[in-house]
Specification:
Structural class of chain A: mainly alpha
Helix content of chain A: over 70%
Helix content of chain B: over 70%
CATH architecture of the largest domain in chain A: Alpha Horseshoe
Number of domains of chain B: 2
CATH topology of the largest domain in chain A: Serine Threonine Protein Phosphatase 5, Tetratricopeptide repeat
Shape of chain B: elongated
Largest sheet of chain B: none
Strand content of chain A: under 5%
Radius of gyration of chain B: 26 Å
Radius of gyration of chain A: 48 Å
Number of helices of chain B: 8
Number of helices of chain A: 11
Distance between the termini of chain A: 97 Å
Shape of chain A: rod-shaped
Number of strands of chain A: 0
Largest sheet of chain A: none
Order of helices and strands of chain A: HHHHHHHHHHH
Number of strands of chain B: 0
Order of helices and strands of chain B: HHHHHHHH
Oligomer: heterodimer
CATH class of the largest domain in chain A: Mainly Alpha
Distance between the termini of chain B: 62 Å
Number of domains of chain A: 2
């Protein structure tokens, strides 16, 4: 009985009674003050619950929006951090290239081999001795020997090996540069090598401008000697 | 002595087992209750969020010339979505049909009209939807008093009231959605809750 009454009150409140039931219920309501109290309370309770639910649902939607807006700064921060890392990396690389020409020299330098007059065992003469010394790494002796060979007249190819000898000693870079500069105007088959080693010497002396000029000359020369390395170096220097 | 010791041991063990069983049942019930509540509210909020997302972009695009800031527009849209949800319920708004959209945008534009008042924008504006005006609920003093007593009830009883009078669930459905084990318990809790509210209102 009680259950039925509760169902009836709820149906009345949600307006789902059929017209005859509705009439009967309204009549009972007029006559029963206890029922009136209960219906009034439940009617108010419905409003209260609906309003509380409305606020709860709205809070839920606002929270969804807040979560979205909180995500954005994180994305922005991540992008900013990424850009910063890239910028730092670029700077580090750039600094390495700009500030370490001597390191570049060490990386690219190698002793030019003797291919003008290769020596054989027991082949010892005034003409072959400097080449033998050169091959053995006795560059000072080799330089002196080449000077002796050129007493009667300078031969550009011998002058090249003389220059290579003093360059390999590492003691007279300025003289080596000067010798290489004179060799550029001479008739020598070693012109590409002259350009290559002069660019390296300029690098060693941190004269990047002249190093670039020499490298460009080398790249314009029809021989393909050290072209790949010259391109790499130019790229790094630019 | 040994026999007595054995008796105590056995009795204590039984008590211990009973206690363990009680704790297990309580935990299981709590878990079950939480699961049910979570599933129920989860589905409900999924429907609401889905409906909210479905028309948000359209609404913001259509209202971008109205000289209302984004927060105001979002507030209007949120209120209107909730009103639509409360009118049609979770099941119906899942379908997202044209009638629901018309209702939602009708409510939205009625709120926009209210917001714009007599401004020049309002005079030039022609609402692209049939305006649907809904009365804002303002709780009376009596209702505010009732709300205080309602909040003071246990969460379980509040939930029963909400499911019965707001969601229009049957008692059996309430049993399925809550930690209450049977229909009689639900009825009894609701009856006692109602009695308590009546007595507190009369004070």
């Amino acid at each position: 009985m009680e259950r039925e009454l509760q169902e009836l009150i709820r149906s009345y409140l949600i307006k789902s009674l059929d017209p005859s039931e509705q009439k009967a219920f309204e009549k009972a309501l007029e006559e029963d003050p206890v029922l009136q109290e209960e219906v009034a309370l439940l009617s108010n309770l419905q409003v209260v619950i609906k309003e509380r639910e409305r606020l709860s649902l709205k809070n839920r939607l606002q929270a969804v929006e807040q979560q979205k807006s909180q995500k954005k700064p994180l994305v922005v921060l991540l992008i900013a951090a990424f850009i910063l890392v890239i910028a730092l990396l670029s700077t580090v690389l750039f600094w390495e290239e700009e500030l370490a020409p001597q390191e570049l020299y060490t990386t690219y330098f190698d002793v030019y081999p003797n291919n003008l007059r290769p020596t054989a065992a027991g082949d010892i003469s005034k003409e072959t001795q400097p080449f033998s010394d050169y091959e053995l790494g006795n560059y000072e002796d080799a330089a002196n020997g080449f000077l002796v060979l050129m007493e009667n007249g300078v031969q550009p190819d011998l002058q090249f090996y003389y220059t290579m000898s003093i360059l390999n000693t590492g003691k007279s870079d300025d003289e080596a540069i000067m010798q290489l500069a004179t060799l550029e105007d001479r008739d020598t088959k070693y012109l590409p090598q002259v350009l290559w080693y002069s660019s390296l010497l300029y690098l060693k002396k941190e004269d990047l401008e002249n190093a670039r000029i020499q490298l460009k000359k080398l790249l314009n020369h029809p021989a393909l000697y050290k072209n790949r390395e010259a391109e790499q170096l130019l790229e790094k220097l630019n | 002595m040994n026999v007595l010791g054995c008796f105590f041991y056995t009795e204590n063990s039984k008590a211990f087992l009973k206690l363990r069983y009680f704790i297990y049942i309580s935990k299981t019930n709590k878990k079950l209750m939480l699961n049910r509540l979570f599933q129920s509210s989860g589905k409900q909020y999924d429907a609401l969020n889905g409906f909210y997302r479905a028309y948000k972009k359209t609404f913001l695009t259509e209202t971008e010339d109205l000289r209302l800031d984004r927060d105001t527009l979002l507030g209007i849209y949120q209120d209107s979505v909730v009103a639509t949800y409360q009118k049609y319920g979770a099941k119906r708004i899942k379908r997202k049909n044209a009638d629901l959209k018309s209702f939602l945008f009708g409510v939205c534009w009625s709120k926009i009209e209210e917001k714009l008042g007599n401004t020049s924008v309002a005079k030039k504006m022609a609402a692209p939807y049939t305006i649907i005006k809904l009365e804002d609920t303002i709780l009376s003093a009596e209702q505010k008093e009732l709300e205080k007593h309602f909040i003071a009830l246990s969460e379980n009883v509040q939930q029963i009231f909400k499911l019965y009078y707001y969601e229009h669930f049957s008692n059996t459905q309430i049993v399925a959605q809550t930690s209450n084990t049977d229909v009689k318990t639900v009825e009894s809790l609701r009856k006692r809750g109602l009695k308590r509210l009546l007595s507190q209102i009369k004070k």
